Amino acid sequence: MLFLLLSCFTTKSTDNESIKYESVPNPAGENEVVLNEEGQETTLNTGDPASFLKPSKDPLEYFRVHISSDGYQLRQLRGSKFIKKKSR
User: Fold this and answer.
1) pLDDT digits (tens, 9 = 90+) for 49-69
2) Fewer beta carbons below 10 Å: N end or C end of the chain?
3) Could you report how far apart the first and last alpha carbons of the chain are, in Å?
């Protein structure tokens, strides 16, 4: 119990620190546009989930989804010319 209390007191907050992320290339290839869950064009960066950043060797892989308790993130890696999110 004492260890738990001490660890809570020694935790540092990173609210004032700015985190910088670097852009990474599209895992499906440079000539493909990446779309997010809203259908908007986006770029991948080092702050994205690791599953989004791994190279895609399967030509039939169009989407990657990251699901967490807070919600989900989707990235469309291929086919953005032909597959678009329907507008409401």
Assistant:
1) 999 999 999 999 999 999 999
2) C
3) 52
User: Closest by alpha carbon to 74, among 86, 59, 62?
Assistant: 62
- Tokens 């004492």 — which residue? 2
Q: Indicate the domain borders of the chain.
A: 22-76
Q: What is the mean pLDDT of residues 29-40?
A: 91
User: Which helix (H) or strand (E) is 34 found in, with range?
Assistant: strand 34-35
Residue 14: predicted pLDDT: 54
On whether the CB atoms of residues 39 and 85 are closer than 8 A, the answer is yes
How far CA 50 is from CA of 24, 25, 40, in Å, comes to: 11, 13, 20
State the Cα angle at 48 between 43 and 49, rounded to 5°.
135
Contact 43, 35 (CB under 8 A): no
